[in-house]
């Protein structure tokens, strides 16, 4: 499976998504590791098998094993943190903001790649998962590491396109299943 396979699986009504997928996969503004790590972390955040398989297949020769592992780790840890910190952020009672999380998050401190890369991947996943508190925290860290707003925006663009691809593919699968059951 490849990104070309994903593009060919997208229906005509998703032409913009298909074109955006081509554009982000060829973006050179982040460098290869940041680009492909963001793609992998975003793919895992969507939980969509075809998207994960296609992006992982293309990333295999573009990312070192430790970077691939770190991108997956960013998706994993943010799956937990985005739920927890979104709750803390949205809960009306202020008590939760003062309580320790008591969740193991060691990978954030030692991700096996440059901290800025891991933060970028965590931001992309947080955007997909919709955690404003995590978005703010990772965006602030990225600025401290010297990333420019355009680089940060590129990661979020990647996340949005990968998420849209997954949504369209899942929607098409649901439609086909409904049509098959009705027949």
TrEMBL record:
Alphabetical list of Gene3D superfamilies matching this protein: AhpD-like (1.20.1290.10)
Top-level taxon: Bacteria
Class of the enzyme per the UniProt entry, highest EC level: oxidoreductase
InterPro entries registered for this protein in UniProt: AhpD (IPR004674), AhpD-like (IPR029032), AhpD_core (IPR004675), CMD-like (IPR003779)
A Pfam family the protein falls into: CMD
Gene Ontology biological-process entries: cell redox homeostasis; response to oxidative stress
Active site: 131, 134
UniProt catalytic activity: N(6)-[(R)-dihydrolipoyl]-L-lysyl-[lipoyl-carrier protein] + a hydroperoxide = N(6)-[(R)-lipoyl]-L-lysyl-[lipoyl-carrier protein] + an alcohol + H2O
The enzyme's E.C. designation: 1.11.1.28
Disulfide topology: 131-134
Any one Gene Ontology molecular-function term assigned to this protein's record: disulfide oxidoreductase activity
Keyword field: Antioxidant, Disulfide bond, Oxidoreductase, Peroxidase, Redox-active center
Function: Antioxidant protein with alkyl hydroperoxidase activity. Required for the reduction of the AhpC active site cysteine residues and for the regeneration of the AhpC enzyme activity.
PANTHER family registered for this protein in UniProt: ALKYL HYDROPEROXIDE REDUCTASE AHPD
HAMAP family per UniProt: AhpD
Entry similarity comment: Belongs to the AhpD family.
Annotated protein name in UniProt: Alkyl hydroperoxide reductase AhpD
Record organism: Futiania mangrovi
Source lineage: Bacteria, Pseudomonadati, Pseudomonadota, Alphaproteobacteria, Futianiales
Gene name, Swiss-Prot/TrEMBL: ahpD
């Amino acid at each position: 499976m490849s990104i070309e396979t994903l593009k060919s699986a997208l229906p005509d009504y998703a032409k913009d998504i298909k074109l955006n997928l081509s554009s982000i996969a060829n973006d050179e503004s982040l460098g290869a590791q940041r680009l492909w790590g963001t793609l992998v972390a975003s793919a895992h955040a969507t939980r969509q098998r075809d998207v994960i398989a296609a992006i992982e297949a293309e990333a295999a020769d573009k990312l070192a094993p430790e970077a691939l592992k770190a991108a997956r780790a960013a998706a994993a840890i943010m799956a937990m943190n985005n739920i927890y910190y979104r709750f803390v952020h949205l809960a009306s009672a202020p008590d939760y903001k003062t309580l320790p999380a008591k969740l193991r998050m060691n990978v954030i401190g030692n991700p096996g790649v440059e901290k800025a890369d891991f933060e970028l991947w965590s931001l992309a996943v947080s955007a997909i998962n919709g955690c404003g508190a995590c978005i703010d925290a990772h965006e602030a860290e990225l600025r401290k590491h010297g990333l420019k707003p355009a680089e940060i925006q590129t990661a979020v663009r990647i996340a949005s396109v990968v998420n849209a691809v997954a949504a369209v593919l899942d929607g098409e699968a649901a439609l086909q299943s409904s049509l098959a059951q009705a027949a």
